[in-house]
Write a structure and sequence with these properties.
By secondary structure, the protein is of the alpha+beta class. It has 2 domains: 3-152, no CATH class; 190-355, Heat Shock Protein 90 (2-Layer Sandwich), CATH 3.30.565. It is 66% helix and 12% strand. It contains 11 helices and 7 strands.
């Protein structure tokens, strides 16, 4: 069905347009045949409205012969053929209708006027149908353009989702391999510690699967997940790993992408605790300043230690995840001093109530 017929408002506007054209066609009859305007209007108006519905056939012609998909000559031939047929339809019934008006309506329409009127109807039908065909081709071109934009957007969203899933999948094996190596090293020297680490690892992985499937989680949920991770690493490093926190209550209600802090904390432990004989303290901070959420992960550094392989991978993963989640207003800054290495995340401060979602 023609889309115009499904929209009453557009259909009304379309018919009113053809009513206006009916007045114009009646004026043409007055000029050519010197007919009284009332006679010309009775003859022209029904034909104009009827021809308006005939011109809707250009919709199917344009769809059957789209421009760009086939040689232009095929589309031109189809449009010309449809135009001639539609104009013939206007001329034939138009002449027959005039004859009925002359015979039963008492209108002064002799044979000469009827025959010349047939030519006039045919001549007027050609440009009207061609304009209709042009409008329909333009409409279909706009429709194809919108569909192409929609498809491109869907592909872009699909690519972002695939990238995000790939990044999430990359985090789990990376941490899992490190944890399994730690468990392996504890089995001989500390079996009880290895058992606790296995239990903690299982609990952490369950929570990772639960939260990782969501689009966003509250910062308090993200911190709880980080705490489970730190409990595992505490078994591994013992007193060498210390944690300090400065978490403000308003910040904990804000939402963040899931599994955002864990790779930063893991990176801090790897480069700020694991390589230092005395270990170190990992500092976590979160505060809300107006419409911004500020997160900090800080670890000590050994100024004399050489750069270790893999440095920067965790930070790059976080940057890519922020990009994949569409957090364009997010910013990740790194500050390095001789004594410390600090990563600062600045995100829009949005709570679940403000965001209108449930975090799932």
């Amino acid at each position: 069905m023609h889309p115009l017929l499904a929209n009453r408002t557009l259909l009304t506007i379309y018919l009113l347009t053809w009513v206006g054209l009916g007045f114009a066609m009646a004026a043409q009859l007055v000029l050519v045949f010197s007919l009284p305007f009332g006679v010309a209007l009775v003859w022209a108006m029904p034909l104009s409205v009827a021809y308006g519905f005939v011109c809707l056939s250009a919709w199917w012609v344009a769809r059957a012969q789209p421009l760009g998909d086939r040689p232009p000559v095929e589309a031109v031939t189809a449009v010309v053929s449809a135009t001639l047929q539609a104009s013939a339809f206007l001329a034939g019934p138009g002449t027959a209708y005039g004859a009925l008006l002359a015979r039963f309506g008492g209108f002064d329409l002799d044979r000469t006027v009827l025959l010349q009127g047939a030519v006039l109807w045919f001549a007027m039908g050609i440009p009207l149908y061609l304009v209709s065909a042009m409008v329909h081709y333009l409409f279909l071109a706009l429709e194809r353009s919108r569909n192409a934009e929609r498809l491109a957007l869907n592909n872009q969203v699909g690519a972002r989702v695939a990238e995000l899933r790939a990044l999430r999948a990359q985090l789990d094996p990376h941490f899992l391999f490190n944890s399994l190596n730690s468990i392996n090293s504890l089995i001989g020297s500390d079996p009880e510690g290895a058992r606790r680490m296995c239990e903690g690892l299982g609990d952490f992985m369950r929570q990772t699967l639960r939260l990782g499937s969501r689009d966003q989680v509250t910062l308090s949920q993200e911190i709880a997940l980080v705490d489970r991770y730190l409990a595992i690493e505490k078994v591994r490093f013992g007193e060498r790993l210390q944690i300090s926190r400065a978490l403000e209550a308003p910040a904990l209600d804000c939402v963040v992408p899931p599994l955002l802090l864990q790779p930063l904390v893991e990176n801090a432990i790897k480069h700020g605790v694991a390589g230092r004989l005395e270990g170190g303290t990992i500092h976590l901070a979160a505060r809300r300043l107006a419409d911004r959420l500020l997160l900090e992960v800080e670890n000590p550094v050994d100024a004399d230690a050489a750069a270790r392989p893999g440095e920067g991978v965790g930070l790059e993963n976080v940057r890519r995840r922020l990009s994949a989640t569409g957090a364009r207003e997010a910013r990740l800054d790194v500050t390095r001093t001789p004594e410390s290495f600090r990563v600062t995340l600045s995100l829009p401060a949005v709570t679940l109530k403000e965001g209108g979602g449930d975090g799932r």
